[in-house]
Amino acid sequence: MDLILVTLDLVGTFVFALSGALVGVRHRLDLFGVLVLSFVAANGGGVMRDALIGATPPAALQDWRYVAISIVAGLFTFWRAGTIERWRNPVQSIDAVGLGVFAVAGALKAQAFGLGPVGAMLLGMLTGIGGGMIRDVLVAQVPTVLKAELYAIAALAGAGVVVLGTALSLPVAWVAGAGIVACTGLRLFAIRRGWKLPVAQPPA
Amino acid sequence: MDLILVTLDLVGTFVFALSGALVGVRHRLDLFGVLVLSFVAANGGGVMRDALIGATPPAALQDWRYVAISIVAGLFTFWRAGTIERWRNPVQSIDAVGLGVFAVAGALKAQAFGLGPVGAMLLGMLTGIGGGMIRDVLVAQVPTVLKAELYAIAALAGAGVVVLGTALSLPVAWVAGAGIVACTGLRLFAIRRGWKLPVAQPPA
Amino acid sequence: MDLILVTLDLVGTFVFALSGALVGVRHRLDLFGVLVLSFVAANGGGVMRDALIGATPPAALQDWRYVAISIVAGLFTFWRAGTIERWRNPVQSIDAVGLGVFAVAGALKAQAFGLGPVGAMLLGMLTGIGGGMIRDVLVAQVPTVLKAELYAIAALAGAGVVVLGTALSLPVAWVAGAGIVACTGLRLFAIRRGWKLPVAQPPA
């Protein structure tokens, strides 16, 4: 089970890094800028979570594999952005898996550091969406996750399954699996059906 | 006294959350985005302070009341933004009270975690203005507090009263009360009189 | 040696603060906004590093000299921005020294807090470039360091010399000196020769 989780985590990191690098290329950053966006999109959510729960130094700065994967994804995108754009559909599907893994792993880690149910759900969600938010802020854009698509809610659902399963003392492996399936499934459904949240209507 | 402080803190949270949600509505975010802005405007300053002084996990993630109040303020604003806009004057006055409470509570907590006078004043101010700064950055705007109105200085004054009072070993309850009055009073005066700081003139 | 390092650190803080204040003046912030940008440009990188390695509260909030230097630089720039603009060349050269000192000091501190080679290099670089990134985000601009000039790579080189020297158990004073010379020299060469990294070409 651990091997599966670690593998999914590294796959999620790679796909999130692709999303960051692609945003960097679209904004005509230089090679360094593309690598920074690649790294923060993949690891920014987890780094913020670790800083907030006091798990310092953050895991992404201690394990060279996360840095290496981000760099590989960034270099590939820098020279082959057109390829990634053509892969948009498969990348979006794998991104949904990464979202589930990040949300579940984030909620589990937050609980391990003593957070209660509400805090663990919020930090699980932050682990999933935080990297993309920093990515968008760094190119001076309103984060996509705040204005379109059903994305954060899926992360919240995955984290919620973890909190619920822990409260019921279910085995961690089953809880983690169910959380990932819930988040990823909801996200894939939302993509296929075009589900969105209502958008605010400013008063005239 | 404690009951008064907690009540003021929750009222301040609610009013700061309204300001965040209103910015979200004006930028046509979706429901999730409005709730995020509601939460960060109300709690972002305190969360940054707690991360910087090592008080992890942050209080706002451990006490469900702050999350609940932010969500209620966000939902209300999402569906009734016009009402909040019409309440602008009372909301601005209550916001001045919230600013005072946050600045004073932030300075006290920073002192309790070993910060010196300068650090405690800066972190008291950050507690008051930090949430609004994140709110504005998330919608890709220059934070209002950096370019208009006398707002941060009022927070700094409130935090300064706390630092001074502590140095003189005055009773905490009196010091806290005086700090809130100083900050809120200065802010209300500035609103009424239209006081502003000088604005930079770039060389031609 | 310590006296030299502290002096260089304070000089670097002053020059970084000038860069922040100048950006604030160009964006017509008010006096408070100019001082905030002055402070975050000078100290934001170190504050982020300290939060990430758990060195709380951050040094910049505990030592009043960093705050005082930032304020002096900010006030001077607020009233004499034209003078700073005319000094652009010397300021840019001193900035290169500051970059080297910050990157080296950051990598050393990260190592002292248990970071491995990759983490220490990244955090040394972040110490050098993080303040400028926050400065640019606060005026809703894409950070300069992500899109132009060879700047971050110089910081990375300085931090890399520290990591390498430590691995070889060389004396710290020599390692620190070599790291500063490597970073500052590379940066000055890049300015003089107009060296830049390749820029991303979005697919048509």
Could you explain how this protein is built, in words?
The structure is a homotrimer of 204-residue chains. Chain A is an all-alpha fold. Chain A has one domain. Helices cover 78% and strands 0% of the residues of chain A. Chain A is built from 9 helices and no strands. In chain A, helix 6 runs parallel beside helix 8 and helix 8 packs antiparallel against helix 9. Chain A starts with a helix and ends in an 11-residue tail after the last helix. Chains A, B, C: This is Glycine transporter domain-containing protein. Chains A, B, C: It is a multi-pass membrane protein. Chains A, B, C: It comes from Arenimonas malthae CC-JY-1.
In short:
Chains A, B, C: It is a multi-pass membrane protein. The structure is a homotrimer of 204-residue chains. Chain A contains 9 helices and no strands.
Please render the helix and strand layout as text:
3 copies of one chain form a homotrimer.
Chain A: H1 2-26, H2 31-53, H3 59-62, H4 64-79, H5 81-86, H6 88-112, H7 117-138, H8 152-167, H9 172-193
